[in-house]
Write a structure and sequence with these properties.
- Strand 1, helix 1 and strand 2 form a beta-alpha-beta unit.
- Helix 7 packs parallel to helix 8.
- It contains 9 helices and 10 strands.
- The N and C termini lie close together (7 Å).
- By secondary structure, it is α/β, with parallel strands linked by helices.
Length: 305
């Protein structure tokens, strides 16, 4: 059965009014998953040692120091801390680490971590793009260093390039990072020429207006690279802001595209006998987010059956 990790602290990371990365996002996802038979588990608090796999102590100390007693503190122009943000971000990391542990222990073939804030824009020592800790990169490093895996793949279909994940894994020969994303678009990275120190990065930029057909073709290209890489674990940055209804970008995907892309990813993982941990990233139209997240998790469930 597919595992679902979440935690009420995700509702305590409160952003300013009209901010697109809002509490209602998590409610939309959790509500959309109601009625699905999932093994629901609380995301635990992260251990500092896991956070420090990807971020220096100085960065963690800065987040603690800036955490406000009330209101908001700004980390950059669009990334905020509220009094509950650190707990939420720690449970997001803890959920990914727990999911990695569980699937590698054979408790389930896959898991979905429904938490916020998202993480894939956080670089080693820089918060940005609504993100505080890079939970998916931390999960990859836990799999490599704690569990002793030789090869992991991190696949990102968020409409925005996962610059933070790329930054953290750039020098990591044991990790493949692959991403499709609208380009040019925030954060401005993700050109096809960005290949990683060990040729371990695959970026496939997509033009504004790209619909499902070329997107699916791009993911078949990613799947071929994954099957060649033969990872022992696949992690997915599951952002749903490539949907045609999303206000922050201009790709033209729909729920059927997320279903197809999720199936391409899961089929590649199955061919490698690799479990899957999927992690919520972006998606800012609440209706499209809920529908797309459910479509994605339904594919995880089919794979787990």
């Amino acid at each position: 059965m597919t595992l679902l990790y979440t935690h009420p602290s995700g509702f305590q990371h409160v952003t300013p009014p009209s901010h697109p990365e809002q509490v209602a996002r998590l409610d939309a996802v959790i509500s959309a998953l109601e009625g699905l038979e999932l093994d629901r588990r609380d995301a635990p608090d992260a251990q500092d040692d896991d956070i420090l796999r990807a971020h220096p102590q100085s960065y963690l100390s800065m987040i603690r120091r800036k955490l406000p007693d009330n209101g908001w503190a700004m980390l950059d122009a669009d990334t905020y801390l509220s009094p509950g943000s650190l707990a939420a971000a720690r449970h997001a990391v803890g959920g990914v680490c727990a999911a990695v542990d569980a699937v590698l222990a054979g408790q389930a073939p896959n898991a979905f971590v429904a938490m916020r804030p998202p993480g894939h824009h956080t670089e080693r020592a820089r918060a940005m793009g609504f993100c505080i800790f890079n939970a998916i990169a931390i999960g990859a490093l836990r799999a490599l260093d704690h569990h002793g895996l030789d090869r992991v793949a991190v696949l990102d279909f968020d409409v925005h390039h996962g610059n933070g994940t790329q930054d953290i894994l750039w020098h990591e020969s044991r990790a493949l990072f692959a991403s499709t994303h609208q380009y040019p678009l925030y954060p401005g990275t993700g050109g096809a020429h960005e290949r990683g120190e060990h040729g371990n990065v695959l970026n496939i930029p997509l033009h504004s207006g790209t619909d499902g057909a070329p997107a699916r073709a791009a993911w078949r290209q990613v799947a071929a690279r994954v099957e060649e890489w033969r990872p022992q674990l696949v992690l997915v940055s599951a952002g749903f802001d490539a949907h045609a209804d999303d206000p922050l970008a201009s790709l033209d995907w729909d729920e059927a595209d997320f279903t197809a892309i999720s199936r391409i990813i899961c089929d590649a993982a199955v061919s490698c006998s690799a479990p899957v941990v999927s992690v919520l990233e972006g998606g800012y139209d609440l209706g499209a987010l809920g529908r797309s997240a459910r479509a994605h998790v339904e594919v995880l469930k089919e794979t787990a059956a």
